[in-house]
Amino acid sequence: xxxxxxxxxxxxxxxxxxxxxxxxxxxxxxxxxxxxxxxxxxxxxxxxxxxxxxxxxxxxxxxxxxxxxxxxxxxxxxxxxxxxxxxxxxxxxxxxxxxxxxxxxxxxxxxxxxxxxxxxxxxxxxxxxxxxxxxxxxxxxxxxxxxxxxxxxxxxxxxxxxxxxxxxxxxxxxxxxxxxxxxxxxxxxxxxxxxxxxxxxxxxxxxxxxxxxxxxxxxxxxxxxxxxxxxxxxxxxxxxxxxxxxxxxxxxxxxxxxxxxxxxxxxxxxxxxxxxxxxxxxxxxxxxxxxxxxxxxxxxxxxxxxxxxxxxxxxxxxxxxxxxxxxxxxxxxxxxxxxxxxxxxxxxxxxxxxxxxxxxxxxxxxxxxxxxxxxxxxxxxxxxxxxxxxxxxxxxxxxxxxxxxxxxxxxxxxxxxxxxxxxxxxxxxxxxxxxxxxxxxxxxxxxxxxxxxxxxxxxxxxxxxxxxxxxxxxxxxxxxxxxxxxxxxxxxxxxxxxxxxxxxxxxxxxxxxxxxxxxxxxxxxxxxxxxxxxxxxxxxxxxxxxxxxxxxxxxxxxxxxxxxxxxxxxxxxxxxxxxxxxxxxxxxxxxxxxxxxxxxxxxxxxxxxxxxxxxxxxxxxxxxxxxxxxxxxxxxxxxxxxxxxx
Length: 646
Description:
Helix content: 25-40%
Largest sheet: 7 strands, mixed
Number of strands: 23
Structural class: alpha+beta
Strand content: 15-25%
Shape: elongated
Radius of gyration: 36 Å
Distance between the termini: 132 Å
């Protein structure tokens, strides 16, 4: 009985064992089938994909940054060039404790507080970058010291980088501009323009001036290098190499020595000067004072210098020549005079009696001339030579704002000139339509009177005044102002050239042009408002002084410059071209809060023209304000607001 029970138990256990064995065998078979299917998928179906990944691990593709194009003046003076230096860079994404790492780095390489601030600022602006510089321009000793300790600093590396340098510092800084680190906004713009691929490996791009406007020409085309690497990522050999194409060089129309003379002529005064060659549109000098050192921006400007520049009351970062808006004052009168002649509202020999003021018909309000008691009989010639306000009050009334707008706008006033750097503003040449759109008010006759002497709503940039003067000097031929004369390849062969043909030509009566021209020449001679600046000149030149009102004067009050804060005094203006009979240069000068155009702005113009036409370098005293009795005394202030918008 007991033996049967034992036999039955053994038989059941054997049966269970065989069942478990069969299940295990089936499970193992299923696993092998799954493993086989996975192997088949990886090694057969996905062979090409994983082969490509393996090759990618074996082959490293590195961008080769092209050399940035150089910038020269018209005579070959270098204004921007490149040099190579070692940079200590950190990849923030690979660092757990960044502050601790930087502290340890200071035991090997000197890292100043300024370096730390700049690095922090770069991190805030460039979150998508792989590596950022903590120190630039390392010495050979520092490079060797870090190389010995490199194993201690994963995520830190030394790179040889090209650097931009501006050897002339502040001179022509607003023209040349500067490059800076590429930030997130730049990346988004590059991506939107489908240019991001060409900036792989690049750390900088142009920010303002020529560096920005000609970025595509200057940057070049990025190259590619394929290298075979080992498991540790070390390069074994170069498989293929597509060399980069260097950026194109730029030859500017600017004459750097003339630029330097012009900037020094301002001394420590604020202002702007633009000089143009009337026959081509070449910009010979482009001054905005004060300037700044563009080298400060190349590596990312530190907080201290940025605050000094950005918070300065003198606004050195403001491009006054391109973006400064000022009432043109009496420099507007030559265009008014020509409008009167061309539109048959005046003749050269016709004269008015100037009692020292002008009143609109039926009005008792007086728009006063700068000279109490007036100038007596005044014809067109005399009106320009002595800058008679009453003549132009009357002329503006007879012309009407529509005629003034339509005629003077042909000279580029109230619109952008189209110069080849970004940031230009249009100025303001008012019209009835503009006032209704801007102020929701109709145009009043008093508005026209103030516009006639370059006041009221009238605003222009120094660049626009220089362009308008160049059109006048060339008898109506308008060439687009340009700072780049030629685009050159890396071997300095000409790729593109500018200034070969005019934009348009105005149809002007030669007799009318001659009448205005002769009067402007006499402005610089005895009896004219720029007589002191014209004294002793070896050539004849034409010019017109102007004064732009900064602070209004109430009815009956007299403008007293000495009692005003320096920054509330009038701006001084002067437009000119020379030689008068065959102009080679046309220019505008603005001296902020300089007072009278004849005393402050015209002497600067004379210094510039003397150098350009005669090669004559100025004496130090020539750059200082000239003491004289200016016959154009307070011309805009004495009209005491007129329409209330002076």
